[in-house]
Amino acid sequence: MTIRRLVKTSIAGLSAHKSRSLLTILGIVIGVAAIIIIMSLGEGARGLILGQIQSIGSKVIAIIPGREPQGPTDILATFTDSLKQNDLDALQNRNNVPYAAQVMPVVFGSESAAYGNETYRPTILGVTDFFSEIYDVYPEKGRVFTPEESRNYADVAVIGSKVEEELFGNQDALGKRIRIKGKNLRVVGIIGKTGQLSFLNFDEAVFVPYTTAQQYIFGIKYFHRIVVEATSEEKVAEVVEDIERTLRAQHNITNPEKDDFSVQTQEEAMQTVSTILSAFTLFLASVAAISLLVGGIGIMNIMLVSVTERTREIGLRKALGATNRNILSQFLLEAVILTAVGGAIGIAIGGGISFLVSLVISNIYGISWKFVLPVSAVLLGMGISSAIGLIFGIYPARQASQKSPIEALRYE
Known about the structure:
Blueprint: H1 3-15, H2 18-24, H3 26-56, E1 60-65, H4 85-92, E2 100-110, E3 113-115, E4 118-120, E5 123-127, H5 130-135, E6 139-142, H6 147-151, E7 156-159, H7 161-168, E8 177-180, E9 183-191, E10 196-197, E11 200-201, E12 205-209, H8 210-218, E13 225-230, H9 236-250, E14 261-265, H10 266-309, H11 311-319, H12 324-364, H13 375-401, H14 405-410
Parallel strand pairs: 5-12, 7-9
Antiparallel strand pairs: 1-13, 1-14, 2-5, 2-13, 3-4, 3-8, 6-9, 7-12, 8-9, 10-11
């Protein structure tokens, strides 16, 4: 039997029961669509996050308290108070880190802010004026607080557009005072609508001098982060070495494996985030692929029913000269066609849903989320669906090919 004739016969067999064929491939459609959606949105999320990290600049280095996690048991070790004022002073000393252009301590948390009878809970960041330069975000109205205000525990704040809207409505917030943890802070700057940048929504944030945040808002004597900018990209590696040497000397650490801090460049952060997102996406896609297994079992069940219903047809074809190989090939091809069609439909549906989700996220939430349909996801969807057709189609096809033509013709 020629391949063309085999395909034509298989399609004719499936077309005889259109409704059953459509219901049979439903599990495949759902499974493949789920894989496409997960992998597409995963790629979109990775592109967004990596883009935001990259936007900070390759010269920026983050110092994080606690040892770098090597596994799940080390996560709690990152929540420490190992970065303090004497560490900041040592890092700002040019003799210790000669190629550090800027050193900025960071403390952060969430507290309620109030103006009159209105309240809102923004993200509070205690920083220096350098935060504007790092993120390339400057007040639309007013100014950033000065280095002198940071040193002198000044009661000033720069707020995001959402904070202004929630607390002041249509009023101009500039010059007015908001109350956070009993401390009245004068609004000296208002950042225009900016949205999400590097894990932080600037519209929903309040920036205050780090000294003010430590003393009056959070009541702590340590830093959650210290951010260092190198004088040039070429000096980043040298700055990292200087930072590590300085902090080890400060903390009396002689064995690097005992570090109570970790130093991370933007390149390392991108690699870490990319690895985590890829692993997470693959895990979710694997979970979604379980539904394909269910779909495969359904196909095997329906094909077995089809073999029983078409027993006389099988006997007649064998009586007319069809070989066991011909019968096996026909029923196996029918299973593959079912799963391949289901895979194609699943890819189309999954791609369409992913596009709509990307569109909604971009337009409603103002996030620069790009629609991505990875070729690997398409190939994976088609490959798995076709493989399932082969695997779960072999048994019914073999059952059909082994039928005796005489007994099949006698079958009622």
